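lol forgot to send this yesterday, sorry. struct tokens for the thing we talked abt
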């Protein structure tokens, strides 16, 4: 009886600790943002959101995050395929480097991009001579977003490829299907849920990126100023209402993306 009593109390204490951790670390900060954004009413909120600089920053962020996500889909699918289906020297090292953006501070990533693509670098110098500017323009923002979101699609499709029944692929070849037809009819449908969930997570992460972008964007209002940097500027300008209003837009969009990802994963698990 005493052991059962202690076990119940331990279980209750453990669950309570987890719930308190979740509430204080996630629920309360999110509730605080929504409360702050609507603290002065709907009209000030709408004025903050509809401010031309805020609106341009949000639209620019969405546009560049979409571009980075599309590149991630293409590159991530190819890299994930190569790392699973091929064996070559250095494969394990490359596979471990995929997670580097998760471990590396984003500001360091931004500095790396600045040194690699800046005006004084070889690549930046050649691009400048060709009349193409990278750093302090939109291409640098896309590269920064691509760097921090690089692992999502790769890590999402790798388990699907590992678990895939190769007999279906072999049967397609036996029936005379070409490699391209087998890929799009047999392999690609298996990879698609991972590609979609990884792409949406990459898009959501790109929307929120700050550290890597702030060093390479130039932060020109209406041109290279993205939403996260705009929020930081509003805080620095003692305008928490405006910062919270734009944060609510990004947060709500992230909630929608997260819900969609969970729905895709639930449907995949149910199949």
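and heres what i got for the seq, position by position
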């Amino acid at each position: 009886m005493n052991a059962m009593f202690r076990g119940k109390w331990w279980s209750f204490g453990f669950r309570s600790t987890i719930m308190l951790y979740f509430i204080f670390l996630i629920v309360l900060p999110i509730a605080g943002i929504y409360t702050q954004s609507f603290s002065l009413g709907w009209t000030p909120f709408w004025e903050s959101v509809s401010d031309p600089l805020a609106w341009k920053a949000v639209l620019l962020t969405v546009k560049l995050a979409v571009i980075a996500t599309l590149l991630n889909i293409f590159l991530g699918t190819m890299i994930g395929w190569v790392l699973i289906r091929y064996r070559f020297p250095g494969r394990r090292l490359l596979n471990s480097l995929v997670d580097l953006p998760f471990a590396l501070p984003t500001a360091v990533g931004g500095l790396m991009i600045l040194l690699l693509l800046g005006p004084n670098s070889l690549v930046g110098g050649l691009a400048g001579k060709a009349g193409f500017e990278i750093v302090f323009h939109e291409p640098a923002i896309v590269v920064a977003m691509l760097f921090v979101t690089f692992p999502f699609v790769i890590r999402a499709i790798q388990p699907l490829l590992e678990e895939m029944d190769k007999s279906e692929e072999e049967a397609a070849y036996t029936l005379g299907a070409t490699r391209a037809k087998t890929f799009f009819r047999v392999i690609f449908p298996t990879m698609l849920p991972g590609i979609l969930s990884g792409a949406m997570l990459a898009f959501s992460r790109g929307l929120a990126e700050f550290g890597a972008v702030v060093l390479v964007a130039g932060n020109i209002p209406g041109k290279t100023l993205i939403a996260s940097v705009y929020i930081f500027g509003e805080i620095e300008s003692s305008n928490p209402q405006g910062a919270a209003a734009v944060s609510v837009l990004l947060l709500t969009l992230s909630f929608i993306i997260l819900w969609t990802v969970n729905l895709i994963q639930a449907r995949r698990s149910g199949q």
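The radius of gyration is 23 Å. anyway ping me if u want another try
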